[in-house]
C-alpha cells in the first residue's frame, strides 16, 4: 500500500471534498479523485460515499481511518527521530480567532521563522472554532477551554479588555466620566447571532446597551473604534496598533479572558509538535505582556 495514497485518503476524509483536499495537498481535485479510486481498487472496497454535502466515509473508509492515522503518527515519529535536536522545520498551520491572528501571531511567527529557517507557518484567521479532528489546523488557539474531544489543551495566557474610543470621537461627543455618561453614545460590538463563543459576549457582561455598529470580526470592530465610529470593548494588546485610541472607565469596566492552545491528542507523541507548542506558547505569552505594557494606564 502506497503511503502517498493513504495521505490523500486522510485529506479527503478530513476535508469532505476532493477540491478542499487538493488545496491542502497542493494538487488538483481530479488527481485526488483518481488516487482515491486507485486506492479503492487496490483495497477492493469503497472508501467514500458521495453525498450532497461532499464525500462521507463509507464503511470501508471508517475501518481504514484509524490505521491511516496510526501510520501518519508513526511516520511523524520517524521524522522526529531523524531530525536534529535544534531543527524545527516543515509546515505548521495555526488556527486562531482574528484578534489573536492579527495582533499577536504575525510577530510570534516572524520570530519563530527567523529562529528556524526551515519552518513554514500558516496562520488561519477565522471567527469560529476549529475542528482539529478534521485537521483544519495543526494547532488552534481558542478563547475558551473545550470540554470534549481527543485533545491536548494548554492555557497560554490571560489578557485584558477595556472600553475604548478614539480621541477624535471623544472630542466630538459629551465627556465620559461615569457609567451613566455612556447613554446616547454609539457602541461597537459583535453581531449577536454570530457570537461563536460565550466568552466574546462582552457587552452582555458589562451590562451596556446593544451595539449600533457590529461585525463578526474583532479586528473590524477595532478599526471602527480607530475610525472614530464609537465606543467598543477592545483588547489591550491591540491598542498599540491604533494610535489615538485610549481606554475609558478602566476602574469600572475591565474584563479578563484567556487564550488556550489546543492540539490533537495523537500529536503529543511527536517531539516536533511538542517543541513547536512550547515555542508558540512562550511567544504568545511574551507578546501579550510586551504589548499590554505599552498601553497607558
From TrEMBL:
<dbReference type="InterPro" id="IPR000847">
    <property type="entry name" value="LysR_HTH_N"/>
</dbReference>
<dbReference type="InterPro" id="IPR005119">
    <property type="entry name" value="LysR_subst-bd"/>
</dbReference>
<dbReference type="GO" id="GO:0003677">
    <property type="term" value="F:DNA binding"/>
</dbReference>
<keyword id="KW-0805">Transcription regulation</keyword>
<dbReference type="GO" id="GO:0003700">
    <property type="term" value="F:DNA-binding transcription factor activity"/>
</dbReference>
<dbReference type="InterPro" id="IPR036390">
    <property type="entry name" value="WH_DNA-bd_sf"/>
</dbReference>
<keyword id="KW-0238">DNA-binding</keyword>
<dbReference type="InterPro" id="IPR036388">
    <property type="entry name" value="WH-like_DNA-bd_sf"/>
</dbReference>
<dbReference type="InterPro" id="IPR050176">
    <property type="entry name" value="LTTR"/>
</dbReference>
<feature type="domain" description="HTH lysR-type">
    <location>
        <begin position="1"/>
        <end position="58"/>
    </location>
</feature>
<dbReference type="Pfam" id="PF03466">
    <property type="entry name" value="LysR_substrate"/>
</dbReference>
<protein>
    <submittedName>
        <fullName>LysR family transcriptional regulator</fullName>
    </submittedName>
</protein>
<dbReference type="Pfam" id="PF00126">
    <property type="entry name" value="HTH_1"/>
</dbReference>
<keyword id="KW-0804">Transcription</keyword>
<comment type="similarity">
    <text>Belongs to the LysR transcriptional regulatory family.</text>
</comment>
